[in-house]
Design brief:
Layout (H helix, E strand, L loop, with lengths): L4 E3 L5 E4 L2 E5 L5 H10 L7 E5 L14 E9 L5 E14 L2 E13 L7 H14 L9 E6 L3 H7 L8 E14 L9 E3 L5 H12 L10 H8 L8 E6 L2 E9 L6 E6 L2 H17 L13 E9 L4 H17 L4 E7 L3 H9 L4 E11 L4 H5 L14
Parallel strand pairs: 7-8, 14-15
Antiparallel strand pairs: 1-2, 2-3, 3-5, 4-13, 5-6, 6-7, 8-16, 9-15, 9-16, 10-11, 11-12, 12-14
Helix pairs in contact: 4-5
């Protein structure tokens, strides 16, 4: 690509204009965490998605490959941009592929309108991170209220990859409950993992971008905030026909409130008082993290919404007993699950994002061949 060169030396560095781009190492950790902390998402509810105590210690099953690309101002040495890339196994048109995920794309306000930062960052990803055994596209999400990012990244600017839309995705923030497990719902044990892995593989194979779970992945989750006792199973005649995990990710990922709408800020104390009655989550003070569990490993045989509701009610009870004020649940637009949440949890906060496949022009034919099925990525990995 014109104007770009890889610097010689031990480390790979891509220089473009006044910037340099490279794969971050552990000594860059403080800069990554600062960029995530200081660059919240825009919108009426502004949130920062942080990674304390270390951006490099992501809990749960390790991605097949994972890296951060850092952008620095060559004149000052300041880190002014970051993006994370993780490769995980997922279903695409019913087959398991190595699917990259792009996330945590943040650029400091002082450099946000400089296309050169984006061009260099994406080219660094292409040169330093992409590998031949992966899909030639990556999945990413952009907040629906982030109009600037949606406009810039989807307008086809020369030197930037193509952002092909694949659907809308909603994350619902639900209030925790005090309910006990419903009849027919029980906590898993490690002895359930072989059968649970098989059930997840069977139930998620038809879900576009759905995760591919192995037995060893479930064991790794148990060591990083999602023990077997927090994975709920709906069983019938001894067989699993639904599951949902209550994943506490706060030890390595945090969602921090940075701004509320004016009216919400004014009545936040009242919202918190009535939260247990309305089924809405309590809202922390600005600068404090939301105490929320992630509802993960969500699968129901035949998309049975009655079973999904029973798992949800039980999971929100587990979240409450663990000390969370609520939990987050993800569902794509035009799905039964999204309608179930909207119908039964009317005080839930809905945070909408747009999903895209990010690819270079020479991979357009690969993207065109993908079926237009409803996307169903794992919320715990986004």
């Amino acid at each position: 690509m014109a104007g770009l060169a890889v610097a010689s030396g031990v480390s790979q560095v891509l220089r473009q204009g006044g910037y340099e781009f490279f794969v971050a190492e552990r000594h860059d950790d403080a800069d990554i965490r600062r960029l995530l902390r200081e660059n919240p998402t825009p919108g009426s509810f502004s949130l920062s998605f942080e990674r304390e105590p270390s951006a490099f210690d992501d809990g749960g099953p390790r991605a097949l490959r994972q890296c951060f690309i850092i952008a620095r101002d060559r004149r000052t040495g300041e880190a002014i941009g970051v993006c994370e890339r993780a490769v995980r196994e997922a279903y695409i048109d019913g087959k398991v592929h190595k699917l990259p995920y792009l996330s945590a794309l943040r650029i400091a306000p002082t450099h946000r309108n400089r296309i050169g930062v984006l061009r260099g960052g994406f080219e660094a990803l292409r040169q330093f991170a992409e590998q031949a055994d992966e899909t030639p596209f990556a999945l990413t999400s952009i907040a629906a209220e982030n109009e600037t990012a949606l406009r810039i990244l989807s307008r086809g600017i020369p030197g930037l990859p193509v952002y092909s839309p694949v659907g809308a995705y909603s994350t619902f923030v639900l209030g925790a409950k005090s309910e006990k497990l419903l009849a027919g719902i029980r906590p898993a044990t490690p002895q359930d993992f072989p059968a649970l892995a098989k059930f997840l593989q069977s139930a998620l194979a038809s879900k576009q971008f759905g995760p591919y779970w192995r037995e060893e992945d479930l064991t790794a989750l148990a060591e990083n905030g999602l023990p077997a006792s927090q994975i709920l199973l709906a069983t019938r005649n001894g067989r699993i026909h639904g599951c949902m995990g209550v994943w506490d990710q706060t030890g390595f990922k945090q969602t921090v409130a940075r701004q509320y709408p004016a009216i919400v800020s004014a009545v936040r104390p009242l919202i918190n008082v009535f939260a247990p009655l309305t089924g809405s989550p309590q809202l922390p003070a600005i600068g404090q993290p939301l105490r929320l569990a992630v509802l993960s490993l969500v699968a129901v045989a035949g998309d049975n919404q009655s079973v999904l509701q029973e798992l949800l009610r039980s999971a929100l009870g587990v979240a409450g007993r663990l000390g969370h004020s609520g939990a987050i649940f993800g569902a794509a637009r035009d799905t039964q699950a999204r309608e179930t949440i909207r119908r039964h949890y009317r005080f839930a906060i809905e945070y909408e994002t747009r999903l895209f496949l990010v690819h270079w022009h020479d991979a357009k034919h690969h993207v065109a061949r993908i079926a237009g099925a409803t996307p169903a990525p794992e919320l715990g990995h986004l």
